[in-house]
Amino acid sequence: MPRTHANLPRLFVPSALIAGTPVDLGKEQSLYLAAVLRKSVGDEVVLFNGRDGAWRAQMTSDSKRSVSLDLIEQIAAQPAASDLWYGFAPLKSERLDYVIQKAVEMGAGTIQPVLTQFTQVSRLKHERLVANAIEAAEQCEVLNVPVVAPEISLSALLETWPSDRRLILADEGAASASPVERLTQLAGEKLGILIGPEGGFSDAERTRLLALPYVVPISLGPRILRADTAAVAALAVIQATIGDWR
Ligand code: SAH
After folding, report:
1. Judging by beta carbons within 10 Å of its beta carbon (0-12, 13-18, 19+), is residue 53 exposed, middle or buried?
2. Residues 145, 134: contact at Cβ < 8 Å?
3. Which domain, by its residues, includes 223?
4. What CATH number is attached to the domain comprising 144?
5. How far is ligand 1, taken at its centre, from the CA of residue 170, in Å?
6. Residue 221, Ramachandran bin (φ over 0: left; ψ between -120 and 50: alpha; else beta)
7. What backbone phi and psi angles, to 5 degrees, belong to 54?
8. How many Å apart are CA 215 and CA 117, to the nearest integer?
9. Closest C-alpha to ligand 1, atom 26
10. Banded pLDDT at 43 (limits 50, 70, 90)
């Protein structure tokens, strides 16, 4: 991937990015640019909003309360949205932040916390998860900011699961053969990937999952991985075999 303008600060903004329409930053981002990064009138940044690609923009005001910018040129078109659904049993604090960041970097389209029997976290700060996803997108030049869905129970998830979407289950009990062959058979299909909590799925949950026609269990090798490792490993093997690494 060509890295143009990699040295410029990248900011996610909620507003539309349209040639000729100036952008005013909110308080927090203004303070960040003007005070923390000490940027001033004439300095450039890259703006994106998850819809209108990436734009080179130039500061026309460096007030610490409200920085204004003019859009100069679009430097990247908005890529097609990722359709990859990523479900995981939420982990505690830093490791929760970690899995959100990694899911953004690995190209998930939807990030869905799923509450299972052995999940140790039940209440999530949705705003924090969204802020984390945005920050990861800013850092890693990801223009598609995934949708972070509010948490849902595994039962509710399965009751509403669309029958035309496959659900790849990271299953440490699956026959330990390479997942590559199994995944290759799913090329072109709508996909989701589900990772269990630290304690794994309960026997009842696993039995229920494995009985569903759309569930495809895969092994991630002969070792038990921690849930956050399993998430990255699963997303990597999916992207490399049937996803956007090809
Ligand atoms: N069952 C274990 C470990 C759970 S690991 C226990 O009793 O503690 C957490 C999650 O990571 C699992 O639910 C599974 O989704 C995934 N995972 C870990 N190692 C895996 C492997 N080798 N293959 C497939 N999935 C794995």
Report:
1. middle
2. yes
3. 85-241
4. 3.40.1280.10
5. 7
6. left
7. -115, 140
8. 19
9. 172
10. very high
